[in-house]
Specification:
Chain A has about 110 residues and is an all-beta fold. Chain A has no helices and eleven strands. Classes of the chains: A mainly beta (about 110), B mainly beta (about 110).
């Protein structure tokens, strides 16, 4: 089955800088890659996704890049703000015999320092 | 528009007890997922229902964990008997026609 590796367990940036979180996956059949944000003490909140028919998607300050050849995708947060501080999870779809599931990375704790 | 709701938000159980966690998916969503979240293991899928049919029962979690969908708008996760290693946050998520899963607020379980 699918495996997702999230490369940075922690990331610290200064307010206004960009933050980049990288993930890799193993299953070439994966076609859907969402990102979730989890603030302290709260649940996961969907932020952005990308499908395999495109290699770039932007929503305001969030950019997702997908490199299907390298089986790698990344989340770029531009002009970071203190409220971006949270744990970010990447995920990849797994279309196995038991249906359409998501496999999650372990999470990256992003700290944005003023 | 109501999102995914979960009750209780917090639960404290003695080892060996039976506990039942509840989830109501977003109205109209056909897919429902139960996850366990811990710092060490991250997010682990426990169960996955599609239109009330059990698609995935979480392999290693089978013996003491049982999820059910009593109807299309209500699901339960029973842990019987509880063990201290079950202490975690239990998350429920639902999905409609699109691929996006929407998560509930979670139940924080502490087993003493």
């Amino acid at each position: 089955g699918e495996k997702v590796e999230q490369h940075e367990s922690t990331l610290s940036v200064r307010e206004g800088d960009s933050a980049v979180i990288n993930c890799t996956y193993t299953d070439t059949a994966s076609s859907y890659f969402p990102w979730y944000k989890q603030e302290a003490g709260k649940s996961l909140h969907f932020v952005i996704d990308i499908r395999s028919n495109v290699d770039r998607k932007q929503s305001q300050r969030l950019i997702v890049l997908l490199d299907k050849k390298a089986k790698r995708f990344s989340l770029h947060i531009t002009a970071t703000q203190p409220e971006d501080s949270a744990i970010y999870f990447c995920a990849a779809s797994d279309y196995g015999s038991s249906g359409n599931k998501l496999i999650f990375g372990i999470g990256t704790l992003l700290s944005v320092k003023p | 528009d109501a999102g995914v709701t979960q009750t209780p938000r917090h639960e404290v159980a003695e080892k060996g007890q039976t506990i039942i966690l509840k989830c109501e998916p977003v109205s109209g969503h056909n897919d429902l997922f139960w996850y366990r979240q811990t710092k060490i293991q991250g997010l682990e899928l426990l169960s996955y229902f599609r239109s009330k049919s059990l698609m995935e029962d979480g392999g290693a979690f089978k013996d003491r964990f049982k999820a059910e969908m009593l109807n299309s708008s209500f699901s339960t996760l029973k842990i019987q008997p509880t063990e201290p290693k079950d202490s975690a946050v239990y998350l429920c998520a639902s999905r409609g026609q699109q691929d996006t899963q929407y998560f509930g607020p979670g139940t924080r379980l502490l087993v003493l």
